[in-house]
Design a protein that fits this description.
The chain has 171 residues and is of the alpha/beta class. Helices cover 43% and strands 18% of the residues. A hairpin with a 7-residue loop joins β5 and β6 (117-122). The termini are far apart.
Amino acid sequence: VRLHANDANAAMDGVDIIERRLDDDDGVANVSEVLDRLTATTGLEAAVSTAAVVIETTTRDATALQQFFADIEGQLDRDTLVVPSATGVAVTAAVAGLRYPDRAVGLQFRDPLGTSLVEVVIAEQTTAETAARADEFVADIGCSPVLVRDGPGVASTRLELALEAEAMRLV
């Protein structure tokens, strides 16, 4: 795993945050082994050039996401999964300008990290092959993939809110 940030301090802070969260998670047996597989870099090309999956995790609007993915597309293998994870932006919109938007899929990891449910968001352009690869990736990291259609927000959060609203009406 390669963590990218434009600023070296921000990249190292990201590693520190991950280490603290892993230390707090009783489900992670060997934190040092996990951290040995994590590197931080300020070089975007070094971060993405050989990646099988590129997940963009900063908060961005659709235009900024489109620009980011357009900027890195030439550095990616054709098979690289492109994953915007901003909950307020539809995957379909985030990758609209790509030459190969069919390789895009959203991944919404639940918080806390110990929760194994991951929503695999299928955009309008996502192919069945891409969906299957994303499903396999999520399973390979020990999580349970749930395929959902592209739409506003996170499906599980929307379901939780509907359940809470119904509980309030009952009370």
